[in-house]
Specification:
The protein is an alpha/beta fold and 282 residues long. It is built from eight helices and seven strands. The chain has a single domain, classed as 3-Layer(aba) Sandwich (Rossmann fold).
Length: 282
């Protein structure tokens, strides 16, 4: 209560923000536009936040896509790879280095003494379990695929995301002293429009399954809201909730060597993208 909510979205502007204002009675809801498939759009959002001097107490990385086939982003990457993983790396790289998320490691902008620790929350999925290890030889490479491979890749990129979350927590909190809390979580099966681009027959079948057996978004938001606001998690980090149950992630997500290699590969890919597709200077 009393928070200033910034909703960065590709669509639903301004309708989604207006709906939240009506339901909560709060006028402190603001919508900003971002397309997480586009490097330039991510940088433009970060430029706006930096120019306004905004500091984020809680950052929720919620967006994800499940396309039926491979689609190229404006910079030539696979859309699911970009939106479900790399965009988070790019966004947080800027927010942390700019000091938009206060931290003592990247931005030289530590939080005031005694203030609550910033929190970063990732919407992940238990589908990361049993995924193949991260393939660094093909990391970032665009490859064609269809529906079956898309389902596999969805879980695979959630493993990539969880591995990144673990490595981010390590780097933000050296020597075990928590400065910024990082929490991946799985909301469980949710009745959303994530299958909106599926083939018509599959979309109709899955739509029925979603409506009958899956949770409403309001109910599924419980672990996210808990991790964002609960005083009980203050001072902790890298705790994984599946719905409202805390449990370990797949052991591959904790591999420090995989985390180090993922960070290095992501940073190298970002550097190449910035060289080949430089954003407009703010």
């Amino acid at each position: 209560r009393g928070a200033h909510l910034l909703m960065a979205c590709r669509s639903g502007i301004p309708e989604a923000g207006e709906a939240i204002r009506r339901e909560t009675g709060s006028s402190n809801v603001e919508m900003l536009r971002v397309d997480l498939s586009d490097l330039h759009s991510i940088y433009a959002l970060c430029d706006t936040l930096r120019a306004r001097g905004i500091q984020l107490d809680v950052t929720v990385c919620n967006a994800g896509v499940a396309p039926p086939n491979a689609r190229r982003t404006p910079q030539g990457l696979d859309e699911m790879f970009m939106v479900n993983y790399l965009a988070k790396f790019i966004l947080l790289d800027r927010l942390l280095r700019d000091g938009t998320i206060p931290n003592a490691v990247f931005g030289g902008n530590p939080r005031p003494p005694g203030s609550p620790r910033p929190r970063i929350i990732f919407t992940s999925s238990d589908s990361h379990r049993g995924s193949t290890p991260i393939d660094f030889d093909s990391f970032g490479r665009f490859e064609e695929y269809g529906v079956r491979r898309s389902i596999q890749l969805y879980g695979y990129y959630k493993l990539v995301l969880n591995t990144y979350a673990t490595e981010l927590s390590r780097r933000l909190n050296p020597a075990g002293k928590v400065d910024v809390s990082v929490f991946p979580m799985c909301p469980g099966p949710v009745n959303t429009n994530i299958i909106r681009d599926a083939p018509p027959l599959l979309k109709a079948f899955m739509g029925f399954i979603f409506r009958v057996f899956f949770q409403s978004p309001e109910k599924a938001a419980a672990p996210l809201v808990y991790l964002a606001a609960a005083p009980e998690v203050e001072g902790s980090t890298n705790r994984y909730l599946h719905m409202m149950t805390e449990k370990p992630m797949d052991e591959k997500a904790y591999d420090p060597e995989a985390g180090r290699r993922l960070w290095a590969a992501s940073a190298a890919l970002l550097e190449r993208l910035l060289q080949e597709h430089p954003p407009n200077k703010s």
